[in-house]
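Subject: Protein record for review, amino acid sequence with backbone structure tokens
Category: Structural biology, sequence-to-fold work with a learned token vocabulary.
Format: Residues in single-letter code; tokens as whole numbers, each standing for a residue.
Body of memo: The sequence and its backbone structure tokens, given next.
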Amino acid sequence: MNRIITAKFGGTSLADASQIRKAAAIIKSNPERRYVVASAPGKRFSDDMKITDMLYTCHKESIEGKDFSETLKKITERYAGIIRELGIDFDIDSEMNAIAENLKNGTSADYPASRGEYINSKIIAKFLGWEFVDASEIIFFTDNGTLNEAKTFSTAEERLLALEYAVIPGFYGSLPDGSIKTFSRGGSDVTGSIIARSVNADLYENWTDVSGMLSADPRIVKSPKTIENITYTELRELSYMGASVLHEDAVFPVRKAGIPINIRNTNSPDDNGTMIAASLPKDIKRRAVTGIAGRKGFTSIRVEKSMMNGETGFGAKLLYIFADNGVPFEHCPTGIDTISVIVNTAMFESKREIILRLIKNDLNPDYITIEKNLSAIAVVGEGMVSTKGTAAKLFRALADAGVNVRMIDQGSDELNIIVGVDDDDYEKSICALYDAMIKE
């Protein structure tokens, strides 16, 4: 039975005619790449605008009663240039007239936002000589905006497997009434994953502008190593802390089906990139730490009460106060008479007074201590559980760098260790941990 590869190309990979030609060469180099998911054209240079952002601007101008024709003209010219350079016959004016008409009729923002992927995919399909399949005809949402998995997978499977090759727009699907519904930004990754799952692909390739996932933030660590292999679980932990070239929701459809993901670089197609799978290959050396990631902007609310451990439901009541006020907790380290709730500062500050009042009234604590300007850093790796001295090395590295650890939290699966440090020590901590845990 022939293998099937689903390949998704991001906005930078399809930003202009030159990039589309690169993508087309990659696609045609392997006949197993049967289903391609395309993004809207991204930035061609640092000060450029993404097509999707321009389309959002059109919608904003339309609802404010402003003339959006100049913005739409710029989009038309951008696509016209791509069409001209690719040498294909494509009626861009008809597509733009349809967008203009819908904007005048008061369409939702999702419709114009989706047209970047829609038009780009039709252009690419024309250039490749492949079938175009509108995502709105195979990806379905429920009335409340969640993905209708059963209908989507069955419809997409039946439609796509009947075609030898097809191009599908990313980022959107349709609601029960037929109107367009988009995923969150970066949602073309999710579309690619859905298509891969629907056709039971052997591999989901995600083509972007980097040669895989990096083991640390390159804005902080100079030339961090590329992660060659990573598990879904490790990826999820790092993505949660902001370190990912992949939309975090894109993991779940393929993970359930056991389909590996390969992050590749359109501009360096010979690079192996990063392979994401359920488990690491048996023939590679298991490392203790896979990657390091973190985020700033946390607050710690430390609640102290004597004999807290004997008070049934104390922790549950405390967390309920946060949940009932729409503030999710990130981490919750505990002691015998203390419990700390780590939350996003911006979310907490908007509900600060009511949360503190409820804690005092409902739990009668001895003390409440609030610490702001905290960063959370996660050191992630499936090998940590079997590698002696990992925690000692981690804390020694921070101590040698003069960093005061304000919070420690380790997952029950021992897949990660999360430390809290002052925001001012964030970059220094990332560098120290990378040098000690990965660089060597």
The two ends are 44 Å apart (CA to CA).
